[in-house]
Amino acid sequence: MTQESPSSDPAADALHALSQETLWMLAVRDTRDKVAFAALFDHFAPRLKGFIMRSGTGSGQAEEIVQDVMLTVWRKSAMFDPQRAQVSGWIYQIARNRQIDVIRKENRPVPEELHADQATEPDAQQMLGLEQEACKLKTAIGRLKPDQREMIEKAYLGELTHQEIKSQTGLPLGTIKSRIRLGLEKLRHELKDMRSDG
User: Fold this and answer.
1) Higher pLDDT, 11 or 51
2) Contact 73/5 with Cβ under 8 angstroms?
3) Is the separation of the CB atoms in 82 and 115 below 8 Å?
4) Model's pTM, two decimal places?
5) Burial bucket for residue 109 (CB in 10 Å: 0-12, 13-18, 19+)
6) Helix, strand or coil, per DSSP, at residue 161
7) What CATH number does the domain containing 98 carry?
């Protein structure tokens, strides 16, 4: 019997087929790899924050939920099974459940889109939807005025506080807040238009 070459090793092939995010997640699960966790955090935190804010949660509270979700990802990493769910689907499910808990604690009505998905595992269709949302968001951000875009990117993609943006740019806090507010309003309109078009 001839010995198999490494390239025909099914385990190695399966590993190559996994996404970068899944590889990070497996490193966290199997070896408690902090560098991989930091990479996961950098990748998912801004996306989760946007996802959470879309259902009407404020920026500060969304940040707290994101921190909580990523802590849960670290603590419950042993439960992740790439055969059962994509890492993005698994993390978004944790985020959705956490968000519902927070909304219920505050006795607010749970938005319909959170209810509908609560019991189901995100499928390929949902994940495609999220990817499309991310693309739309990128396009919408690209249409903002440069000064508004810069503030939105620093606050949401760069995860900077208003104070940190002030230190970086030297702009007054009022200007920063106003540009972020106007940018977010414009983004909402852009995304609404895109959704009604598509």
Assistant:
1) 51
2) no
3) no
4) 0.52
5) exposed
6) coil
7) 1.10.1740.10
Q: Are 56 and 127 contained in the same domain? A: no
Decide if 165 contacts 176 (C-beta within 8 A).
Answer: yes
Contacts with 110 (C-beta within 8 Å, 6 or more apart), sequence order: 100, 103, 104
Residue-level pLDDT at 44: 92
Hey, how many other C-beta atoms are within 10 angstroms of the C-beta on 33? Answer: 17
Q: Please, which residues have CB within 8 angstroms of residue 31's CB and are 6 or more apart in sequence?
A: none
Q: Give the DSSP letter of residue 7.
A: G
Give the tens place of pLDDT for each residue, 57-84.
888 888 999 999 999 999 999 998 888 8
Contact 87/19 with Cβ under 8 angstroms? yes
160: phi then psi, degrees, rounded to nearest 5: -90, 145
CATH number at residue 174: 1.10.10.10
Which single residue is written with the structure tokens 């419950």?
Answer: 76
